[in-house]
Amino acid sequence: MIERRREELRLVEAKYGELEVDPNFEWFIIKRWGLGRGWNVTDTPVLVLFPPGYPITPPDNFYTRNDLKLAAAGEPGNTSPNVNQAGRTWRQFSWHVEAGDWRPHAEVLKGHNMLTFLDGVSQRLNEAS
């Protein structure tokens, strides 16, 4: 399973830029995720955890800089600040793959993978709500 994670992270890095990767491949951080209008900052790191059982089990939630807020200084919905993960404090976004919507394949690009999960992260961050 480590080799699959390596392969997926190569794809993630090619699309999203520089990563920080846990030595045990339990999590990764996209160092600079560009944000659009509606946020109080222009970019944020994004942390994603590999759940036990990945890729059969989908990722669940994602994390941004702890001080990420809406441009009008409001709290984004369905988030929790001050969550400790990977030795740092983050804002957790509640983001879940719907039951039955996660279908990985032995060939990474033929099924769901971290890129498809990150499509959902992108959608959520583009909402700025």
- Mass-distribution shape: globular
* Major beta sheet, strand line-up: 1-2-3-4-6-5
The helical percent reads 10-25%
Uncertain ranges? none
Describe it.
The chain is α+β, with helices and mostly antiparallel strands and 129 residues long. The chain has a single domain (2-127), classed as Ubiquitin Conjugating Enzyme. Helix content is 22%, strand content 27%. It is built from two helices and six strands. The chain has helices spanning 2-16, 114-127, and strands spanning 19-21, 27-34, 43-49, 62-65, 79-85, 88-93. A six-stranded antiparallel beta sheet has the order 1-2-3-4-6-5, covered by helices on one side. The longest helix is centred in the first third of the chain and has 15 residues, at 2-16. It starts with a helix and ends with a helix.
Give a nutshell description of this structure.
With 129 residues, the chain is of the alpha+beta class.
Features:
single chain, 129 residues, alpha+beta, Ubiquitin Conjugating Enzyme, 6-stranded antiparallel β-sheet, 2 helices, 6 strands, globular
Topology summary:
Elements: H1 2-16, E1 19-21, E2 27-34, E3 43-49, E4 62-65, E5 79-85, E6 88-93, H2 114-127
Antiparallel strand pairs: 1-2, 2-3, 3-4, 4-6, 5-6
